[in-house]
Design a protein that fits this description.
alpha+beta, D-amino Acid Aminotransferase, Chain A, domain 1, Dna Ligase, domain 1, 7-stranded antiparallel beta sheet, 4-stranded antiparallel beta sheet, 12 helices, 14 strands, globular
Length: about 325
């Protein structure tokens, strides 16, 4: 018998029975009641988020420079002096938009993970687009961050095509409810963004082992470019990753959020960003409807309002481990 994700068209009743959460339900039942509007800027502005993380003793990628105005863009060469690799991203970007990864320099050119070569003028143009708000939420004027490029742990580079994979953990009331790894493909140009062609890989919350993978919504067992297995991979530092996720809830006070983390080969887990409106594709990656995780977490928060940091992690690992994940 085929499972629910093998058929594209489902009735609303079937989706409810599967526990699938849609945009409207997410917004009405989980975002609005749990995320006060006044707290959004803590996570919508990556500069503020990074400072909060530093204040809470979390490791984050080093910031090399901030491009705040056209003058900073004009002296970009000076800001990049001595930097062979780096990432340029909008402070208020979302969905991976505007993130430019440079892995090396050759003469006057800057090399992307795909091997494409960019000139300094093209980098300046990209920064100008960031300042103009081309990639930011609501099209607001923005600033650009130039920061350390994560060098992924070897176990992750083996399952990602020329790009750094990241881990998304979705939280409710401080309880991790679902996690996935997003790995780059040739199509996604080194970006770990599912809408740009990356693959989503579900993770067992109890162990940090990958359990399922999808590419453009279709289940897969192997990476479409590298042809290596992407299911059954043990992620390193899983205890630390869950600890970071719960700390992000504590530092932002947001009730419903997504936390993005990368694992550096030398530095270990690094908190990349926090999202107050996490997407729903994580359900496809895990083959489980979010409602089956969110309702137990909500009930636990109401019955045990004084659960500690460690108790929240322990509950999630026990309640949402693979042994209980089958639909």
């Amino acid at each position: 018998m085929k499972r629910w994700w093998h058929r594209w068209i489902r009735t609303p009743g079937e989706l409810r029975a599967m526990g699938v959460v849609g945009i409207n339900m997410r917004n009405a039942r989980f975002l609005l009641p749990n995320n006060p509007r006044k707290l959004y800027d803590l996570v919508d502005n990556k500069i503020r988020t990074k400072q909060l993380a530093i204040d809470h003793k979390m490791a984050v990628p080093e910031t090399y420079a901030v491009v705040r105005n056209p003058h900073d863009t004009s002296v970009l060469e000076k800001l990049l002096k001595g930097r062979e690799s780096f990432v340029i991203k909008p402070a208020r970007g979302s969905g991976g938009k505007g993130v430019l990864v440079i892995v090396a320099r050759e003469g006057g050119y800057f090399i992307k993970p795909s091997g494409s070569r960019l000139t300094l003028d093209e980098l300046k143009h990209h920064c100008s687009n960031i300042l103009a708000g081309l990639f930011s939420l609501g099209g607001r004027r923005d600033v650009g961050l130039i920061e350390y490029r994560v060098h992924p742990a070897k176990v992750l580079t083996e399952i990602s095509f020329q790009g750094a994979p990241d881990i998304r953990v979705v939280m409710l009331k401080g309880y991790p409810v679902m996690a996935m790894l997003r790995a780059a493909t040739r199509e996604s140009d080194g970006r770990a963004n599912l809408h740009q062609g990356a693959i989503g890989i579900g993770i067992d919350l109890a162990t940090g082992r990958t359990v399922r993978a999808v590419h453009h919504g279709h289940p897969i067992e192997r990476h479409p470019d590298l042809k290596v297995p992407v299911v059954g991979v043990q992620l390193p530092h899983w205890d630390a990753i869950l600890d970071i996720a719960v700390t992000c809830h504590e530092m932002t006070r947001l009730g419903y959020l997504g936390v993005d983390i990368m694992i550096d080969e030398d530095l270990g887990p690094l908190m990349i960003e926090v999202n107050a409106r996490p997407g729903l594709a994580i359900q496809l990656a895990n083959g489980v409807g979010l409602m089956r995780r969110l309702e137990p977490a909500l009930e636990r928060s109401q019955s045990h309002p004084h659960d500690s940091h460690d108790q929240k992690i322990a509950f999630s690992r026990e309640a949402f481990g693979v042994k209980l994940s089958a639909p």
